[in-house]
Design goal:
The chain is of the alpha+beta class. The protein has 15 helices and twelve strands. The strands form four sheets. Strands 1-2-12-9 form a four-stranded mixed beta sheet, with no helix packed on it.
Length: about 400
């Protein structure tokens, strides 16, 4: 199929960018991309957000999902036939019992990385090197989560299992890399004040669990830090939810007006109740590395956005405007609220989390605005949390 977009080198300062190879209409899907590697966040999994261990498809039915988020096992959802979860297809790894949404995902995981990472009967053994690594990570990186040490573990395991190791090492090396002091800033952002001591502890545990001589550089202090920075800069948040899939399916139902109003009111109330109980943590969440998506530069007035409409790790990039052949395709690394703030505030977030100052048309047009933030922005300044490290968690 002729791709609608291709990556091109722009300059050493900007690195790569993604450009349209033909005219793309507003609302069109520019591409659908599968990650090179992905992983669910560790706290998310610990709190029983049950997802396929390979593609992150939510495993609970919409009703189970809503019951858990509400803390109410008696809840009944109308139109249960609109739930897309097929439990009859779910499969487990016979050795360690992690669950997959299908035999295909189980096989794909086994072929790419799971042979190395399968804990077998040691799944609940706290002294197993991989369990020690995960426990250490959870104690350093609390929710809201933006990354996972297991994404890096899967990168190592992928190379270990591969017949053509060089191909994979090259695949991972094409992700944007940073200078040593930039790497340091990103790691600092991920691990907080104690980052040097914590990073060294993680590196030792990572080495104990996964060392491989083909990848010896990744286990040195410098190499481990760049691996960390690679995941910190390029990792794209993935969110899946069987409840939101059910809501989309219900929205599409052709119902008599009264029934439609009743259903809409039920759904609105459900989300209000869930928010009281579970706050903003609605989705199964993880992150992945996507070759094309990672080439997309940021704009405060993006012409495309990412989403996960298939309830798994397949990323859809959709045009928000008509895009002409040859035009650069940009997404926003900021969420809607952040995009409405002053140029000064937007760039503060971008510098802290992505190490660049934005020069998109909106920022250039506001270049003469005073470098101060309005009062309510000042109050909000302290609230920029680590979730911004990652491209915004896209609502599914």
């Amino acid at each position: 199929a002729g791709a609608a977009a291709e990556a091109r080198f722009i300059s050493s300062a900007k690195g790569k960018g993604l450009f349209a190879t033909k005219n793309i209409r507003k609302g069109e899907t520019v591409f659908v991309e599968r990650p090179v590697v992905s992983s669910q966040f560790l706290w998310n999994a610990l709190y029983n957000y049950r997802a396929c261990d390979h593609c992150l498809r939510a495993l609970e039915t919409a009703e189970e999902n809503a019951q858990r988020l509400l803390g109410k096992s008696s809840l009944v959802l109308p139109h249960p036939e609109q739930c897309s979860i097929r439990k009859d297809l779910h499969r487990q790894c016979p050795r360690c019992q992690v669950t997959y949404c299908s035999a295909e995902c189980r096989q794909a995981a086994l072929e790419q990385y799971h042979q190395v990472l399968c804990l077998g009967p040691s799944r609940d053994d706290p002294t197993h090197p991989l369990n020690k690594l995960q426990e250490a990570w959870r104690n350093m990186h609390y929710p809201p989560e933006t990354s996972s040490i297991m994404l890096m573990a899967r990168m190592v395991a992928t190379v270990k299992q591969a017949k053509d190791k060089e191909w994979w090492i090259k695949a991972f090396s094409q992700f944007c890399s940073k200078t040593a002091n930039e790497e340091e800033e990103i790691v600092h952002k991920l691990l907080g004040d104690k980052f040097k001591g914590q990073l060294e502890l993680l590196r030792l545990l990572f080495t104990e669990a996964l060392y491989d001589e083909h990848l010896s550089r990744w286990f040195t202090p410098e190499g481990f830090r760049s691996l960390f920075a690679l995941v910190g800069t390029n990792g794209q948040g993935i969110g899946t939810s069987s409840l939101s899939q059910w809501v989309h399916a219900c929205d599409a139902l052709d119902l008599p007006m009264l029934q439609r109003e009743e259903l809409d009111a039920f759904i609105d109330q459900l989300y209000k109740d869930i928010e009281k109980e579970s706050g903003e943590f609605l989705n199964c969440e993880g992150s992945g590395l996507y070759v094309l998506q990672s080439c997309c530069n940021h704009s405060c007035i993006p012409n495309a956005e990412t989403s996960f409409p298939e309830n798994n790790f397949l990323l859809h990039l959709t045009a928000l405007e008509d895009i002409e052949a040859g035009e650069e395709i940009c997404i926003s690394y900021l969420d809607c609220c952040q995009r409405e703030r002053s140029r000064h505030s937007r760039n503060k977030i971008l510098r802290e989390n992505y190490l660049f100052t934005c020069s998109c048309p909106k920022c250039l047009a506001q270049a003469d605005d005073a470098d101060v933030t309005s009062d309510e922005e000042e109050e909000g300044e302290g609230e920029t949390d680590d979730a911004e490290l990652e491209d915004e968690m896209t609502d599914v």
